[in-house]
Recover the amino acids of this structure.
């Protein structure tokens, strides 16, 4: 996310075109996650370790490269209210008074739902996360699928980062994602790897963050640092509740092969 | 109808395959004709599955040639093999549990459009079901299906791809006798249409029943290919093991004593939170072997984990000699005399990275005679004890200081028995104790269990292998879907048919044929499943 935020910001700052920034961010994300894919798919490294390494690299590299950009601003994406729809009371301002990236996110959710559950490629995607050996036995390449979707995922995370620097704040700051990537990880667990539930979760988590800002703005004697902890505390709480319920009949089915490297002739 | 054409359907020549250090196949030849059921017979580890994984493109042979219909082929991946008309039903089915039946069938199909054509897949699955008499709901998610149904899905999957050569890897090990017969009917239908079937098994009875020809493998090498009418069960067993096999086990009549293990209304959940054992009750008496029969995955392992104190019992009571153990620590279960030989001897039973002494110490280190000042482990005493045990249980080993993983499967199991049985347990729980063992280790394990019984322990024996249950047990309990289907008081008078019905979920009292009591078990003929 940070590399996406930084690369998107610097390209937008230089060229003045936020779309070019988003595109750059996407490919930077693809490139970085290709490293992660290489380590975890081809080399068979532990995915948590590889993921942490890549994350630290991103944090460090973005702060080093972005030093000269601190304090600069870009025009970025402005609000584009959707005609008529944005006039609907309550729902209008909530859903239809945003920048283009938000609208794209609506479309992406529908597109991905359709892709994952209706197309043959989506079927392959669901299968490879669950049992790569089956995918392999059915004559598909588990390795190629894993590379491809890891890279797409990385690209999308980077676009999420670019949103922060190009639309949300319109500036670059070191470590500006402030742990949102980690919240996203919690979100995926909360959503049980299902895109529709992920939307629900995203607005729930986001809502807690927004509420915290509103309460602060409204003025309260409650200590600000504790208020700022709210989204993170909420994340821990949600994961806690899910883990406790796990043994009690509610099924938390993570993909069967989550985090497990696949090698065809590995005999167990 | 077997038709010996000018060229066989499949011809494998001089296949070699080695895994790090181990030669799994060495110069193996195999021919399959059209319309033929060709059985690959061999003990566990003889290289049957490896050979078939090579034919299905999952493994690459180190050397050797594969000729399909007279055309030499090189399979770089399963895709190549599927294109050549080869369909394999693996021992672990190769299905994605979270996907539905039709999605599993559609997975990897080359003629599927970008948008999945659900209607067409379901229609064609329907055709196949009608033609071969196999029934399964195409919309059901696979994890909800029984193991037998999952196998049917796997077969439908290969038939959907118009496989000409069907490989079935140990297909009957997860079926009730009735399901196995239905499978054989399907196999005959497939060969009647001129396809070839390669059938992998180590059960001699069914091999004699279904095969046209048999190729015997031993230690990765081909021993012989024979016509089924030229051989007997005995001669096959001899080829498979390499020497004459004595099927005799000395089982003497015993008078069971009082109840040692009493389980009442147990409810136990599985790893994914579902109830796997549902209000299950049983008694194990002194000097008896109570067999627990059932198709694997019906809650046996969860039940035994709970009885051994390593899985939480949600409801119910477990008593040893009247002492309540539910809620107590695992060590308390052990101190009360429960010994556990789990199915998963490498994961749950032993720590294979630790040496023999350490593995033996695992269950005993806290005892007074194995500690110094009640704190430090007394390694000299442990080593002395390990030495005695290794001797008594004839564990072939490179030395007590070597890691357990250097032992063969049979010797690992002997080490397991040595640790669990050396302190005269009250109750022995043995789950699949002979799984994957060769003939001599199998005999050793069975004799050891009988010896425990004769010494006064109550033995609970769990096995998928009906023959093993029938030949060793004094009484048999049958489990289906976590519930007790009934207790057979006299194994000599129950038919495989009745056992199969119970394993498929019929309760014992629904039979009109009463199953009596009082066994005449002297020197019973026992054939180890090979």
């Amino acid at each position: 996310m940070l590399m996406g935020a930084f690369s998107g910001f610097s390209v937008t700052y230089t060229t003045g075109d936020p779309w070019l920034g988003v595109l750059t961010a996407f490919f930077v994300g693809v490139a970085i996650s290709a490293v992660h894919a290489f380590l975890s798919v081809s080399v068979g490294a532990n995915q948590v370790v590889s993921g942490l390494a890549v994350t630290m690299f991103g944090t460090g590299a973005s702060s080093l490269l972005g030093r000269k950009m601190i304090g600069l601003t870009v025009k970025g994406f402005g609000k584009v209210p959707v005609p008529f729809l944005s006039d609907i009371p309550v729902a209008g301002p909530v859903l239809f008074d945003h920048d283009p990236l938000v609208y794209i996110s609506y479309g992406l959710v529908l597109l991905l739902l359709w892709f994952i559950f209706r197309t043959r490629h989506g079927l392959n995607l669901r299968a490879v996360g669950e049992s790569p050996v089956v995918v392999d036995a059915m004559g598909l390449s588990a390795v190629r699928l894993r590379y491809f979707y890891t890279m797409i995922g990385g690209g999308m995370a980077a676009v999420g980062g670019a949103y922060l620097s190009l639309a949300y704040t319109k500036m670059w700051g070191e470590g500006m994602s402030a742990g949102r990537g980690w919240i996203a990880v919690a979100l995926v667990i909360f959503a049980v790897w299902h895109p529709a539930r992920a939307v629900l979760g995203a607005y729930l988590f986001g809502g807690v963050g927004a509420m915290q800002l509103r309460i602060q703005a409204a003025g309260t004697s409650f200590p600000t640092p504790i208020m700022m902890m709210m989204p993170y505390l909420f994340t821990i709480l949600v994961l806690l509740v899910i883990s406790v319920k796990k043994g009690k009949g509610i099924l938390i089915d993570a993909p069967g092969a989550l985090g497990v490297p696949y090698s065809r002739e590995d005999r167990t | 109808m077997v038709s010996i054409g000018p060229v066989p359907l499949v011809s494998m020549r001089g296949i070699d395959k080695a895994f790090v250090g181990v030669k799994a196949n060495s110069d193996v030849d195999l021919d399959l004709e059209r319309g033929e059921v060709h059985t690959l017979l061999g003990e566990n580890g003889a290289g049957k599955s490896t050979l078939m994984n090579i034919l299905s493109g999952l493994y690459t042979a180190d050397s050797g040639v594969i000729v399909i219909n007279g055309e030499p082929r090189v399979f770089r991946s399963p895709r190549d093999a599927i294109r050549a008309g080869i369909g394999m039903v693996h021992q672990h089915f190769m299905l994605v549990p979270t996907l539905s039946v039709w999605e599993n069938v559609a997975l990897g199909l080359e003629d599927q459009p970008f948008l999945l054509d659900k209607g067409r897949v379901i229609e064609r699955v329907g055709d196949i079901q009608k033609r071969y008499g196999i029934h399964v709901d195409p919309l059901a998610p696979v994890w909800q299906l029984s193991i037998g149904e999952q196998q049917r899905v796997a077969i439908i999957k290969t038939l959907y791809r118009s496989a000409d050569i069907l490989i079935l890897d140990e297909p009957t090990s997860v079926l009730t006798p009735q399901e196995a017969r239905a499978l054989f009917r399907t196999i005959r239908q497939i060969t009647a249409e001129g396809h070839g079937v390669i059938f992998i098994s180590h059960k001699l009875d069914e091999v004699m029943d279904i095969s046209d020809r048999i190729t015997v493998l031993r230690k990765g090498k081909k021993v012989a290919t024979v016509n089924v009418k030229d051989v007997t069960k005995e001669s096959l067993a001899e080829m498979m093991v390499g020497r004459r096999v004595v099927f005799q086990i000395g089982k003497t009549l015993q008078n069971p004593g009082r109840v040692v293990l009493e389980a009442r209304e147990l409810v136990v959940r599985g790893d994914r939170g579902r109830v796997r054992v549902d209000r299950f009750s049983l008694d194990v008496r002194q000097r008896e072997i109570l067999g627990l029969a059932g198709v694997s995955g019906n809650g046996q392992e969860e039940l035994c984990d709970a009885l051994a104190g390593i899985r939480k019992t949600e409801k119910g009571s477990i008593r040893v000699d009247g002492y309540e153990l539910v809620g107590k620590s695992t060590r308390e279960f052990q101190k009360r005399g429960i010994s556990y030989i789990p199915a998963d001897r490498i994961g749950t039973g032993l720590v294979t990275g630790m040496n023999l002494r350490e593995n033996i110490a695992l269950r005993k280190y806290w005892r007074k005679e194995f500690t110094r000042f009640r704190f430090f482990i007394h390694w000299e005493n442990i080593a002395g004890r390990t030495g005695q045990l290794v001797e008594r249980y004839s564990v072939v080993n490179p030395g007590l200081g070597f890691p357990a993983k250097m032992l063969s499967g049979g010797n690992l199991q002997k080490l397991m028995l040595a640790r669990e049985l050396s302190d005269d347990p009250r109750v022995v729980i043995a789950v699949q104790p002979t799984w994957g063992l060769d003939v001599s280790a199998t005999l050793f394990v069975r004799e050891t269990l009988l010896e425990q019984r004769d010494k006064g322990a109550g033995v609970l024996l769990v096995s998928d292998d009906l023959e093993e249950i029938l030949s060793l047990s004094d009484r048999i309990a049958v489990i289906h879907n976590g519930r007790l289907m009934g207790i057979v008081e006299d194994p000599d008078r129950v038919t495989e048919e009745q056992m199969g019905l119970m394993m498929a979920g019929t309760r014992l009292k629904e039979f009109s044929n009463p199953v009596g009591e009082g066994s005449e078990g002297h020197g019973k003929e026992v054939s180890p499943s090979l």
Observations:
- The first strand of chain A starts at residue 80 and ends at 81.
- The mean pLDDT of chain A is 81.
- Chain A touches chain B at residues 118-121, 123-124, 126-127, 130-131, 133-141, 246-251, 253, 255-256, 264-265, 267 (CB under 8 Å).
